[in-house]
Amino acid sequence: MGDRKGRIQAVWGLCAALALAAGQAAPAEPNIKTFSAGLSFENFSRTVIWKGDAASSGIQASLIAARAEFGFTKGLVASLSAGLALTDFRTLAFTGLPVSLAYEGTPILGFTLGAEVVAPIHKLSDFEISGTGRVVYCFGMSRTWPLEGFAVEGEAMGRSSWLEAAAGPRVTYRLSGPVIPYIEVSVRWLRADFEMTETLGDLQGTEAKHVSGDLSFGAALGADAALTDRLAVKAKAGIVPRGGGMDRLLSVGLQYRF
């Protein structure tokens, strides 16, 4: 319990660090100029190697969250989000338990907290270069699966969490129309933990899997489109290259400006 509380505090510490870094890149007055709120959906996949494993494994997460966005002077934009996530740990194997298990269950439900900042750095004609930073933490609920095909009753219980942080430059093309496109390059850091506990008759064992810090580089195309004076759609799609393949990321959101 204390470990989880410490991780949540660390998330908000990272949020503050991102906001501070953005503020140093583009100083802004403290007063809020705009405020909007809405919903967002995000899906991403990452291929990682868990500590102690030889083969790679996939992590896929789908998030839906409520999002509040604050626009400050000097163009600084900061947002906070909270919501739910379904995370699938495909092909993850646990060989240190009394009976080896391969994760084949349904995705695990979790709660997410996140923060993001976009800070303008330089303008060149119709183009604007900004620095971006983002952090999302997901702490999963425990999930139990029955162990079938044995002479005695048994079950397996899993609990997971993950933390992703990303930072990099964004180049925005400031058109006069309702659609504002941009291209973004980012360094993406991922930490993940999965603990599986197995009980089979008198046998019991626990195995913990860790990804202590997987570093990848991604590129994405995005756009903010104004539907009305107050309603806007935000969308982004990107790729994260890896050896022998490519992971992906996708997000879409609807924001209402008050």
Give a written overview of the molecule.
This protein is mostly beta strands and 258 residues long. It has a single domain, classed as Lipocalin, CATH 2.40.128. It has one helix at residues 2-25; strands at residues 32-48, 57-72, 77-88, 93-94, 101-102, 108-124, 127-140, 143-146, 154-173, 179-200, 203-226, 231-242, 245-257. The protein has a ten-stranded antiparallel beta barrel with strand order 1-2-3-6-7-9-10-11-12-13. The longest helix is centred in the first third of the chain and has 24 residues, at 2-25. The radius of gyration is 21 Å and the shape is elongated. The two termini are 38 Å apart. 32% of the residues are buried. Residues 19-29 have low confidence and may be disordered.
Quick summary of this structure?
With 258 residues, the protein is mainly beta. The chain is built from one helix and 13 strands; from the N terminus they run αβββββββββββββ.
Unreliable stretches, pLDDT < 50, 5 or more residues? 19-29
Strand content: over 45%
CATH-defined architecture: Beta Barrel
The CATH class, by name, is Mainly Beta
Helix/strand class:
mainly beta
Shape: elongated
How would you characterize the largest beta sheet?
A: 10 strands, antiparallel, barrel
Secondary structure: number of strands: 13
